[in-house]
């Protein structure tokens, strides 16, 4: 049942990625056409960023597709880790877009350039905001539903990008009022905002790659195990994410003369109790150790 849930979650993730990719790609193409005609550095920076956002869908798409494959004798935990690697690729793509934005904006600030068609630039900026907000809502809602930290983070990133698209309006307004220098300055401001996103996005990705779990995860497993009447004490708890599924290992001390029947269903009851607080918990490996006199 849990495997079927994981497959359905991956399918939902793929659908969300496909739709958000289409929305952001169309938005970026429209913005690029206006940016090339108008010469707006701010809009070009925002366009490069939106192209980067669209490309972040590709590693996520591949990761969700891989996660549907069953475990094998060589990949005994399955392929869920591909989702965490996709998160690292996303951070790299965002960083590349920041470098492109910064270079183009600095060049136009030093060499000077005018902005043509400020009204069209403003409309393109509004389109960028709308496209990013639509993609953000789709990714965040699906990501929260299936428990994908990578998809939620990518959606929050898209929402922030929508705000940077609105900042392009300031560059258009400056050009319309006769201050074209505002445009590359806004482009540099967008670059700084993207670098801030890189930093914030890298933190959760790094934590997942290093097998970190959220505060309260270990405590929830300890409390669930301690609540079992057969458990005398909890000795060790380990947990880690593989994609959008949580895996755990729990070692407990049990009564030395515990009947085999009660011992057999202890793991299932522990998993059921823990999932009340950890709904994305896929499986728990329970290691019951009989309590012997003299054991520490």
UniProtKB/TrEMBL annotation:
Q: Which keywords does UniProt give here?
A: Membrane, Transmembrane, Transmembrane helix, Transport
For this protein, the record's Pfam families field holds: Cation_efflux (PF01545)
Q: Which GO terms describe its molecular function?
A: cadmium ion transmembrane transporter activity; ferrous iron transmembrane transporter activity; zinc efflux antiporter activity
Listed under GO biological process in this entry are: intracellular zinc ion homeostasis
What subcellular compartments does it reside in? Membrane
UniProt superkingdom: Bacteria
Q: Which residues cross the membrane?
A: 21-45, 88-106, 118-136
- Where in this chain does the record put each Cation efflux protein transmembrane domain? 17-210
Record keyword Membrane present: yes
Q: Name one GO cellular component term.
A: plasma membrane
- Which InterPro entries does the annotation name? Cation_efflux, Cation_efflux_CTD_sf, Cation_efflux_TM, Cation_efflux_TMD_sf, CDF_Transporter
UniProt topology in membrane: Multi-pass membrane protein
Give the family from UniProt: Belongs to the cation diffusion facilitator (CDF) transporter (TC 2.A.4) family.
The protein's name in its UniProt record: Cation diffusion facilitator family transporter
- The scientific name of the source species is Rubrobacter xylanophilus (strain DSM 9941 / JCM 11954 / NBRC 16129 / PRD-1)
